[in-house]
Amino acid sequence: MGLEQLFSIVGQIRGVHGYIFVDSKGNIMGDNMGAPENIAKMIYSCGCELLALGNKQFRYVSFSRESEKNILIFSVGNSFLGVMKQAGINDSKVAETVMALLAVVE
Amino acid sequence: MIVFCEDCGEKNDLPPSALAGGRAVFQCSTCCYPNAYPVNVRETVLTYDADRFLNIIRSFSEIVGAFLYDIEKKVVGTQMPAMLTQNDIETLGSGLVRSHKNGVSNCPDIETMMVVISNKHFFVHRVNATLYSVIVTTTPSLPDGLLKRILGPGKENV
Q1: From the list A46, A62, A64, which residue is nearest B102 (CB)?
Q2: Which of A8, A27, B70, B119 is the most buried (most CB within 10 A)?
Q3: Would you give the end-to-end CA distance of chain B in angstroms?
Q4: Is this prediction's pTM over 0.80?
């Protein structure tokens, strides 16, 4: 599965408001968010930190926000996928769907 | 802070800024005498009650571990599995807190962080300016009412 196809599918997952994919150096590889640079930095630095902490056991991190548009970060090899969730949707349901998709890709 | 005039003995209520450097420097509001003398200013330090936190944690069977991590003092209270060393918990705490701070610096409206490692969920909350709580469960949500009990009245004046 190519990256573009992956991005397209992620963007269509129920509960996903937006996504951003950064590579192993923090460069943005794809996104559908306006002004993704700040979130890209956060995704990359938090992703690296937590991947170092949990190693292969790290599954994802969720940052809950007042707006409920929570930010979830998944590791994809040495790269990271950041997802902004829609308000009113359960975090774990979105996370499980994304992880199932990533398992197929990896 | 209430201080007394050295000349007439009347009370004067001074703001903290008037007590800089441990000296009360003021003109008496009653007799206008210019006062300047050393004072002991007791600092009120709010500390979080770590024992109370751990007692609350013990009452929830679904919690597999928890600890308090202070940015300056490191681990200040822990109830983590015995297989983890103090060093392990400090490493965990510093990494989790760094990530939380990183998240908040980019998105100031972030409230909590939940990290999933293996089948464990690590909930990280900022208790005060330097102190964070880390609570570990096997479920993707914390027990009802736990946060309110932990982040509520758990501070003691020293």
Answers
A1: A46
A2: B70
A3: 18
A4: no
